[in-house]
């Protein structure tokens, strides 16, 4: 049984209100934009995602990032999970990502997490994304009980939950 309804069509382009930013599914072709975004914020991202996902390693190479983005693109096409890039209007920079995944831990029907690059932390763009994502998930996705990782549950508490069998 799929974690999403068979007729569900995932969102393509989603503007972030009150900014010149938008979300769209990430692609392998975005590696040249993604790699500097991730590695430029690697230390902070590791503090957030490292214990749970082992990502992003300090030694991650451009090629490893490219392979990971190809995997994300393939997973979206197969409706297995979704990685959305946060992009500027001209799509010249990735400024963060939003992940929409099937549940790994009991108690939710979808798990969502997101981040912005270091330069946006604490600013208006991060605030706008933080406001958008829960609304977007509630209105555009078919979840009854989504879990916002690092938001409505700490990563540590999430890791302590039993895994979905």
Overview of the structural elements:
- With 165 residues, this protein is α+β, with helices and mostly antiparallel strands.
- The chain has one domain: Aminopeptidase.
- It has helices spanning 31-40, 42-53, 62-77, 124-140, 155-160, and strands at 14-15, 21-25, 82-88, 94-101, 110-116, 146-148.
- The chain has a six-stranded mixed sheet with strand order 1-2-3-4-5-6, sandwiched between helices.
- A hairpin with an 8-residue loop joins β4 (94-101) and β5 (110-116).
- α1 (31-40) packs across α3 (62-77).
- The longest helix is centred in the last third of the chain and has 17 residues, at 124-140.
- The two termini are 13 Å apart.
- The mean pLDDT is 97.
- InterPro entries: Acyl_CoA_acyltransferase (IPR016181), GNAT_dom (IPR000182).
- GO terms for molecular function: acyltransferase activity, transferring groups other than amino-acyl groups.
- Residues 21-138 form the N-acetyltransferase domain.
- This is N-acetyltransferase domain-containing protein.
- It holds the Pfam family Acetyltransf_3.
Secondary structure layout plus pairing:
Layout: E1 14-15, E2 21-25, H1 31-40, H2 42-53, H3 62-77, E3 82-88, E4 94-101, E5 110-116, H4 124-140, E6 146-148, H5 155-160
Parallel strand pairs: 5-6
Antiparallel strand pairs: 1-2, 2-3, 3-4, 4-5
GO molecular function: acyltransferase activity, transferring groups other than amino-acyl groups
Domain N-acetyltransferase: 21-138
InterPro entries: Acyl_CoA_acyltransferase, GNAT_dom
């Amino acid at each position: 049984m799929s974690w999403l309804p068979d007729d569900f069509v995932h969102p393509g382009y989603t503007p972030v209100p009150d900014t010149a930013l938008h979300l769209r599914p990430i692609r392998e072709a975005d590696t040249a934009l993604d790699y500097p975004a991730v590695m430029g914020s690697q230390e902070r991202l590791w503090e957030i995602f490292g214990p749970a996902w082992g990502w992003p390693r300090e030694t991650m190479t451009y090629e490893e990032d490219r392979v990971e983005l190809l995997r994300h693109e393939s997973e979206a096409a197969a409706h297995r999970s979704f990685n959305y890039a946060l992009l500027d209007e001209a799509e010249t920079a990735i400024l963060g990502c939003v992940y929409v995944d099937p549940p790994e831990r009991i108690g939710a029907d979808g798990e969502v997490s997101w981040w912005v690059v270091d330069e946006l932390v604490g600013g208006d763009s991060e605030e706008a994304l933080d406001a958008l994502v829960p609304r977007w998930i509630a209105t555009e996705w078919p979840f009854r009980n989504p879990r916002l990782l690092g938001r409505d549950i700490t990563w540590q508490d999430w890791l302590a939950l039993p895994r979905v069998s």
